[in-house]
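$ ./design --mode recover --in tokens.txt
reading tokens...
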């Protein structure tokens, strides 16, 4: 995320912070801060003790903006030259509060734009609008999905910011120079499947844990509101649910070396993938890939196909269900009989999972009520 932060600082946030909190303010603040420091140092030996102790030095180093690595690397490796605005604010680039605010702003905007653009493209060019007539399609479903996703994304970002702060301070194994990793250019190739396999495994078990009845009720049920998904359901989670399922993406670069560009590519790819498995178009009937057909089964029948990228962990743990054959037949998949069969089976499993009462309002039932 350091690349994103450096671009944002250089082209927008250096100027913004300089206008809101200009460095010239320090002329007014320094006398007070200075006298406070002097008083503390002269009247007590505490300051000396703290600053000489190894732990104290560590804390001071962490708090002092000048000593902290900015963007995870030392200055010579920064992407852009400094501008007149670089040091023009009281809140320096390495200030943790400033970094948190900037990261929250850019990641929320990036998350919203990525979600809206990818889901809209999928909706216009891929999604089969015949699904609107499915008996388990909800009343006003798309607007409900969008509202849910748009309000969850900023909360998920708040919890994600600490991971980015750790990356910025150089604690992760993210790197920029290709030869920094043992494998050189080869490492860029094998890091991609390693990342996918690592996160696929963890997301499977986190997703299964989210189906534990007491956790499901509060945190995962909101995502299962959508029985027949549209691409806009992809990010419509309870924020805790979305954050929990994103954790393996943040764990990986703290455990294994990962090139920064690969990380950005993978970050974008997982967002695309999340939309693709919710668009209901069953392009792949591959036995290994957990495509839209597998995830459609998960939304219809709850207890199967918890996987994200592959069917590996579902197969190994006995939760794999082969997608119904009709899903791959363009006519049969929107046949009324297929839908009625799906709805009857889904109602039965839903009652077992959620109990008798159904909190959903279905479009088909609502229009039937209006007609009678
Ligand atoms: Zn689920
Ligand atoms: Zn889903």
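writing sequence...
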């Amino acid at each position: 995320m350091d690349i994103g932060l450096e671009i944002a600082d250089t082209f927008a946030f250096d100027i913004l912070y300089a206008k809101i909190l200009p460095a010239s303010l320090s002329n007014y603040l320094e006398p007070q801060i200075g006298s406070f420091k002097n008083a503390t140092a002269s009247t007590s030996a505490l300051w000396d003790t703290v600053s000489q102790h190894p732990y104290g030095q560590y804390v001071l180093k962490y708090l002092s903006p000048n000593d902290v690595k900015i963007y995870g690397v030392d200055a010579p490796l920064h992407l852009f030259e400094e501008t007149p605005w670089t040091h023009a604010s009281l809140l320096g680039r390495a200030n943790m509060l400033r970094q948190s605010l900037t990261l929250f702003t850019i990641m929320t905007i990036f998350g919203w734009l990525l979600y809206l653009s990818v889901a809209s493209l999928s909706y216009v060019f891929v999604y089969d609008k015949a699904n609107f007539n499915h008996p388990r399609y909800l009343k006003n479903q798309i607007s409900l999905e969008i509202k849910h996703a748009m309000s969850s994304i900023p909360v998920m970002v708040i919890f994600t910011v600490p991971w980015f702060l750790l990356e910025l301070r150089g604690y992760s194994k993210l790197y920029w120079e290709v030869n920094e990793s043992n494998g050189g250019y080869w490492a860029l190739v094998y890091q991609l499947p390693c990342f996918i396999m690592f996160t696929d495994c963890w997301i499977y078990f986190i997703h299964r844990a989210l189906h534990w009845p007491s956790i499901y009720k509060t945190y995962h049920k909101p995502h299962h509101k959508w029985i027949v998904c549209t691409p806009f359901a992809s990010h419509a989670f309870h924020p805790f649910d979305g954050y929990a399922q994103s954790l393996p993406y943040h764990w990986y670069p703290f455990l294994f070396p990962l090139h920064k560009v690969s990380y950005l590519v993978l970050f974008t790819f997982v967002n695309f993938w999340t939309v693709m498995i919710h668009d209901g178009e069953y392009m792949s009937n591959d036995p290994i890939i957990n495509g839209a057909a597998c995830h459609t089964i998960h939304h219809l029948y709850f207890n199967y196909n918890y996987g994200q990228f592959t069917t590996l962990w579902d197969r190994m743990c006995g939760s794999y269900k082969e997608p119904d054959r009709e899903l791959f037949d363009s006519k049969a998949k929107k046949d009324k009989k297929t839908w009625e069969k799906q709805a009857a089976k889904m109602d039965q499993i839903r009652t077992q999972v959620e109990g008798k009462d159904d909190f959903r309002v279905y479009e088909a039932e609502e229009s039937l009520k209006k007609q009678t």
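exit 0
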